[in-house]
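HOLO CASE FILE
Compound: nickel (II) ion
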Amino acid sequence: MNEEQLSLRRFSLSMPEDLVEQLDALTEAKGYANRSQAVSDIVRARLVDEFARETRREIAGTITMVFDHHKRNLQAVLTDIQHDYQDLIISNLHVHLDHHNCMEVLAVRGPARDIRELADRLATVKGVKHSRLSVTTTGKDFS
Ligand code: NI
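Model generated. Tokens follow.
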């Protein structure tokens, strides 16, 4: 994020001393230019989490699954589910991790409620070893 191109508003914050020290340590460790950039990033991350809870808000994200493709019908079941939600799935990536295991990553965009429903359906298919939804912003909600 290029802070210079944004219109910035200055305001003062009061925080417990030890929290400020930890903020400064985080700012340095993560390589932020300054406290303001660190705090902006933290606020955006929190907002993304909140948006993911608002059922109708449009979010973007990824669903990552690992499964054994030797399990009977598993691949077909996963594909059937994905076809039911084709409007939400922008792209997918299939990687053969080893002889047994496949990893599939779906890029998704749509209402938070529908994305969550898709993620839950995929995660609960028998034979899926792990599945995780990672939510981000569509980029339209804030600069
Ligand atoms: Ni594979």
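CASE NOTES: The beta strands are 58-68, 89-96, 101-111, 128-136. The two ends are 8 Å apart (CA to CA).
CLOSED: yes
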